[in-house]
């Protein structure tokens, strides 16, 4: 059978590129609507108008308003460094994975702070945003549990601290609320937030360092014994 005409392949590629461009334009419009009025629910009609498309195009591309919000979060995360977080998560040393995840997470949240704030605020009153926020938390909790399990198996968990207690610590440290308190409340930039989170995590869930041996005390005891 002869190969299909090249023109058909070219036309299909143009259509795919046009579809991807339309999809990205809708996502950008939804992101702008979210951040422009974070306490108001952006409607599909508003997003469609901003993107220059009809409402049916939005539903065709994303299935629902919930799907659109999910796509906005995925787009913001991808731009903010989700791939770097995944790479950090896969590091074989659990403590290194935790440290790098906290650092990369602070950078990623910092780059998408406006969207994170809007989704969190809307989740209290909007079912679609609440579903997306719950999905984000579920992924975060699975990741935290896995990191703690690996840390414990590698002997890096503080003696007397249970896995669940360590999970609770990292759960708090990786939340939007904690980031916002340090960034907005304390005026720290994403790099400083990441460093602070790492310091708190290591001091809380890792074994305490052995106290330095004071040789002067040995000398004092020797003098007294004499």
Description:
This protein is an all-alpha fold. It has a single domain (6-205), classed as Tetracycline Repressor, domain 2 (Orthogonal Bundle), CATH 1.10.357. Helices cover 77% and strands 0% of the residues. It is built from 12 helices and no strands. It has helices spanning 6-36, 44-51, 55-62, 65-80, 82-89, 94-111, 113-123, 127-153, 163-173, 176-185, 190-205, 215-225. Helix 1 (6-36) packs across helix 4 (65-80) and helix 8 packs across helix 9. The longest helix has 31 residues, at 6-36. The N and C termini lie far apart (103 Å). Residues 220-224 have low confidence and may be disordered.
What are the key terms here?
single chain; mainly alpha; 226 residues; Tetracycline Repressor, domain 2; disordered C terminus; 0% strand; 12 helices
Write the layout of secondary structure elements.
Blueprint: H1 6-36, H2 44-51, H3 55-62, H4 65-80, H5 82-89, H6 94-111, H7 113-123, H8 127-153, H9 163-173, H10 176-185, H11 190-205, H12 215-225
């Amino acid at each position: 059978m002869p190969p299909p005409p090249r023109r058909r392949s070219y036309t299909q590629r143009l259509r795919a590129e046009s579809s991807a461009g339309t999809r990205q334009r809708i996502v950008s419009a939804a992101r702008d609507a979210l951040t422009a009025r974070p306490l108001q629910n952006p409607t599909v009609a508003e997003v469609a108008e901003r993107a220059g498309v009809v409402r049916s195009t939005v539903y065709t591309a994303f299935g629902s308003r919930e799907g659109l919000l999910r796509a906005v979060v995925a787009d913001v995360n991808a731009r903010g460094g989700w791939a770097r977080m995944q790479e950090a998560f896969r590091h074989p040393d659990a403590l290194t994975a935790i440290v790098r995840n906290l650092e990369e997470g602070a950078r990623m949240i910092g780059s998408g702070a406006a969207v994170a704030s809007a989704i969190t605020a809307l989740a209290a009153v909007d079912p679609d945003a609440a579903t997306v926020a719950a999905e984000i938390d579920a992924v975060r909790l699975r990741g935290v549990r896995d990191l703690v399990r690996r840390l414990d198996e590698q002997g890096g968990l503080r003696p007397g601290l249970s896995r669940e207690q360590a999970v609770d610590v990292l759960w708090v440290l990786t939340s939007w609320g904690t980031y916002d308190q340090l960034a907005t409340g304390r005026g720290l930039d994403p790099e400083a937030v990441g460093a602070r989170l790492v310091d708190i995590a290591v001091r809380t869930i890792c074994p305490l360092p052995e106290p330095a041996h004071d040789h002067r005390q040995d000398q004092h005891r020797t003098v007294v014994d004499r």
